[in-house]
Amino acid sequence: MNIISSFFKKPVCRAQFASDPVFETSGLLLKKEIDRVFGKSIAIREVDCGSDSAAEIELSNLSAPHYDVERFGISFVASPRHADILAVTGVVTHAMKEALIKTYEATPEPKFVIAIGDDACAGGIFLGTYAVIGPVESVIPVDMKIPGNPPTPATIIAGLLTLMRSAKKR
Amino acid sequence: MTQIFENPVKQPLLPSSWLIQKDATASYYEVPADGLEEIILVLKALESRLVWLFCTEPATEGSRLWYVFERGETPEFLVLVLKAENPVSIATFYPVASRFERVITDGFGIRFSDSLDNRRLLLHERYPDGFHPVKKSFQNTSLQSVDSWAPYEFQLMGGTSVYQVPVGPVHAGIIEPGHFRFSVIGETILNLEIRLGYLHRGIEKLAEGHVPAFCVAVAESISGDESVSNACCYVMAVERIASTQVPGRAVCLRLLLLELERSYSLLSDLAGMVTDIAFSASASRFLIIREELQRLCERLTGSRFLKGMIIIGGISHDIPDELLREAKDVAIKAVSDLDTVLTWTMTIPSVIDRFATTGVVREPLIDQLSLSGPVARASGSSLDVRISHPYGGYEQYSPVLAQKNNGDVLARFLLKGEEVLSSLKYIIALIPEIPAGQVHTHVDINDGYALSAVESPRGRTLFWVHIQNGQIERYAVSTASFCNWMALEHAVMGNIVPDFPVINKSLNLSYAGTDL
Q: Domain spans of chain A?
């Protein structure tokens, strides 16, 4: 096939899946709020402090084609220095306490901390045992809790929407 | 020696007077402390693998060490039980034992003489010296961590122009925490030392003193994307102690959930591998299939990670037949979509270029390091708990063994692709066979102990459960990831640092499942 004939070829385009209208609606509302509070985009840094990795999987799923939250101005970044929001999962273990505090201190102001999952919010079945310190708020201040075992991508987006609505423009 | 092993093929390996328990999964022999080395030499000559070593502390007598062996094609495990008095390390015979011994030293304070490595493994510096959480004398309450400590000593590589690259515990991606210490010359990795334990949540101690029903949730929280495997492994041990038969429908539905979990779990490995070579067009297609499966999980069970379904005696609620038919349709579509994506991905030269000969796990490592699961099967092993130690319905509905020989990233990619396809086909064939009937039976909790083995998406999971007075006395856990992490240290040697992410993803091991 030469280059000219490819101009006249009908483009191949078919929907791989049906989009979820509820998720799309809350995503667009969230985009509006992000535009208002943070000016176009927010950057999230994820920190796992003792989770069983299910919450991490759901957070990565937010970037998968079904959700693709970068459309709404949400991106996940590699360094806390680039982040506006810390998404902390899991009950904080003794071994992760120092890393969590350092990550928090490395995140520039203004910043928000969200606790994701039952263990991060309240400690879950691990509360009061030797290996853990407790929920995230026992180590660093938490602005928003999104419970669930783990919360679904839609729940996480709904939680972010609530956070953005409650936030004043800083 | 000949008296003990008259005929290793036909006769039992050990005198029957030493036998203390025999059940469907394992035979337990009480062995005198000075007899261990002799038996191990013979077991090693018979190509038996040490798959696990754990410790217990019974209330009335001294601590015991339990050496679990897998012998060739024999379906039952061989367990040697020893008094833990001045134990000697067996790491020179089975290198994997070194890490098991370090876990025992952490948990119980038992030291092994001639040990290769005396550093703590899962307990970090914040834990006080002399702290041994699994000892019965320690009550599980909040612990005051120490504020000053000596830094952990990594292995140092000598020579000029060797430099170190520290990575973690907080990584660049959305993954679990762990520390990787690379020693590098130029771009080539000379040595990698993996340090885990950041997610140590005290799983084993947490279960103690609770009723067995509570601990299903503990087993589920070992690793998020292996929750069904871990829950199944745990409840099967409890059901074996109680000598309970699970109803046929529940057995089949558990098989369905196990294979569904394997499919969605391995699909994220496939997506991760192509993401790490910057081929997002292929990754997106894998992720679309995976998301459809996770949505199916939610429709079937109410949880995208199939949590809360497995209970002692069956499953928590029935799945109606029309939903099962829908599951079959989703699986049929997933098979055809996945087949297309896999075939297309394998036609891209840059994929082959990055995957082939990268991160080779050599076959001799499998027995030495007790590797299992896709990592072992991509290096020529035929180890699969579902086939070699069939459990919970796999006796009747046997899966197809997948195998590759090269042991590189490409072999693991192809193998995992095949395994997802064969799991989905297994689901398609299984659904019409699921009988009608109850999905739950009452279980009278008995006292006793049992070993249970399951093939999780990452490989061999072994649990040992001991119930006393209706409560969990000891819950010992061994996951595939614990042993398979060592394969990563070997696989990266001689590769360049930029290839580390794809090699790591091709194994995709669980941090939480290792740190417990």
A: 24-30+40-160
- DSSP labels, B445-489: PPPEEEEEEEEETTEEEEEEEEEETTEEEEEEEE-HHHHHHHHHH
Position with higher pLDDT, A1 vs B184: B184
Task: Provide the token pair at B359.
Answer: 């991160």
Residue B194 counted as domain residue? no
What is the pLDDT, as a whole number, of residue A2?
65
Looking at the structure, give the CATH architecture of the domain made up of residues A24-30+40-160. 3-Layer(aba) Sandwich (3.40)
**Looking at chain A from residue 43 to 72, which residues have their Cβ under 8 Å from any Cβ of chain B?**
46-61, 64-66
Q: Do B284 and A65 touch (CB under 8 A)?
A: yes
Contact between chains at A93 and B221 (C-beta distance less than 8 A): no
CB B339 within 8 A of CB B465: no
B329 and B247 within one domain = yes
How far apart are the two ends of chain B, measured CA to CA in Å?
39
- Residues B67, B78: Cα–Cα separation, whole Å: 8
For residue B141, pLDDT over 80 is answered with yes
Is B124 in the same domain as B22?
A: yes
Domain end marker among B85, B109, B134: B134
CB contact under 8 A, B124 and A95: yes
Query: Distance (Å, rounded) from C-alpha A83 to C-alpha A19?
Result: 29
Question: pLDDT by residue (tens digit) across B67-123?
Answer: 999 887 788 898 999 888 888 888 888 999 999 999 999 998 899 888 888 888 888
Chain B residues inside the 8 Å CB shell of A64: 284, 287-288, 290-291
Q: What is the mean pLDDT of residues B380-396?
A: 89
Examine the domain organization and report whether B9 and B100 are in the same domain.
yes
Identify the domain containing residue B31 by its residue range.
1-134
B126 and A97: CB-CB below 8 Å?
A: yes
Show which of residues 136-165 on chain A sit within 8 Å of chain B, judged by CB atoms.
149-150, 152
Chain A, 25 to 44: residues with Cβ < 8 Å from chain B are none
In this predicted complex, what is the ipTM?
0.89
For residue B275, give how far its alpha carbon lies from the nearest alpha carbon of chain A (Å).
11
| Residue at B113 is within a domain | yes
> Are the Cβ atoms of B201 and A93 closer than 8 angstroms?
yes
Percent with pLDDT over 70 in chain B: 97
Contact list, A150 vs chain B (CB under 8 Å): 224, 305
Mark whether B209 and B130 lie in a shared domain: no
Measured distance CA(B4)–CA(B237) in Å, rounded: 31
